[in-house]
UniProtKB/TrEMBL annotation:
Membrane among keywords: yes
Presence of keyword Signal: no
Keywords: Membrane, Transmembrane, Transmembrane helix
Species whose genome carries this gene: Sphingomonas ginsenosidimutans
Protein known as: Phosphatase PAP2 family protein
Length: 212
């Protein structure tokens, strides 16, 4: 899963360098705008407001707050290994995400008006990448220490839904090409899968050492 996600991101990166934008990038973004006025998004005003609120769940402030709160709770519960893995995964992931943006250097889409203020480069979507890194990594690592199967399933489903809607909101608001978001989802999911594997390996190693 992790290798497949990284390969997908690399392929998308090479394609973006050679061809900006993809035909389906343009088609999807235009489909989300009114045909008579591309500056206006489809749907009622309440949908626009909801997308603005939802996209904030993938912003730096919210993700940092969620991560800090989760680590604090894990420390209170004395889940030292899980807390350390979450901290390492999220900090390293945000650095890698930023480096990827500068490596590709894709500008923001100008096909339609941006419905929120943004800056910086476009590929991969930072909101899509970092929300996947934070929410999916948290869900995966917490699932390793949660005994309730229902709670594990619920946590993972909520994380997937959050990551999905955050990515969709970036395209709806006109600040990212769909391929930016797809790459972010692939990269973030691959990163979360990698740290899930690291956590599982470390726990097995610790268990084996205790049995000796």
């Amino acid at each position: 899963m992790a290798i497949g996600g990284l390969v997908a991101v690399m392929l998308l990166a090479f394609l973006v360098i050679d061809q900006v934008p993809f035909a389906w990038d343009r088609a999807i973004m235009l489909a989300l705008r009114r045909a008579d006025d591309p500056a206006q998004p489809v749907g009622p005003a309440s949908l626009h407001e909801a997308m603005v609120d939802l996209t904030a769940l993938g912003g730096v402030t919210v993700l940092t707050t969620v991560t800090a709160a989760a680590i604090g709770l894990l420390l209170v519960r004395r889940l030292w290994l899980t807390a350390g893995l979450v901290a390492a995964a999220t900090i390293a992931g945000s650095i890698v995400s930023g480096l990827a943006k500068h490596w590709v250097g894709r500008p923001r889409p100008e096909l339609v008006d941006h419905l929120v203020q943004v800056g910086g480069l476009s590929f991969p979507s930072g909101h899509a990448t970092n929300s996947a890194i934070v929410y999916l990594t948290l869900a995966g690592l917490v699932a390793q220490v949660e005994r309730s199967r229902a709670a594990r399933s619920y946590t993972i489903v909520v994380a997937v839904l959050l990551v999905g809607i955050i990515g969709i909101s970036r395209v709806y608001l006109g600040v990212h090409w769909p391929s930016d978001v797809l790459a972010g989802w692939c990269a973030g999911t691959a990163w979360a899968a990698l740290w899930w594997w690291i956590g599982a390996w470390w726990r097995r190693a610790l268990f084996a050492r205790r049995r000796q």
